[in-house]
Amino acid sequence: MARHEGCDQPMVNDCLNQLANFPLEIINTAVSGHNTADLLARLDQEILSQAQVDFICILIGTNDLASHKQIHLPTFEANLKQIIKKLARIYEPKQITLISPPPVDESKQRHRTNRRIREYSTCMKQIAFQENCRFIDLYKTFTENPKPTEELLIGSLNDGLHFGKAGYELLAQTILEALGSFGN
């Protein structure tokens, strides 16, 4: 959510604004390389102190599951629950959407596997259900897309993890679909 990929702003913001048929005001507080512990540490000051918004999307987990800096699943689960608990002081659960990590191209990515991504995504889905939040399975969205997953994962780093325009367009489209069902 934080990568610019050649844009003047985070590429996801650019794609959301291009694809939306309604005006959007986007506050993107994403920080590259952060995990759930980092988000929890900065949540009060950098996110909850902002003006209240209509919809919160949290794409997290990719760094939690990385073998070289792994936050183990029970701690990941506890961190996610704490994040939601803090957000729930201000927001209704249906305003909060957890977004799973996308798949990786394992031929290029050394520290992440799709098996582990599915494990963490399953955990996220269960927590979203338990807490009455929304959930976007980005892994499933990427792998079920007609474009090959490897093509969606090509970004300026071309490391099998950080995706480019095609991946951000798919992410933005998926978020907009969730926004469209916001009243449901």
UniProtKB/TrEMBL annotation:
Top-level taxon of the source organism: Bacteria
SUPFAM superfamilies in the record? SGNH hydrolase
Q: Coiled coil where?
A: none
Give all residue intervals belonging to the SGNH hydrolase-type esterase domain.
22-170
Which InterPro entries does UniProt cross-reference here?
A: Iah1-like, SGNH_hydro, SGNH_hydro_sf
Q: What is this protein called?
A: GDSL-like protein
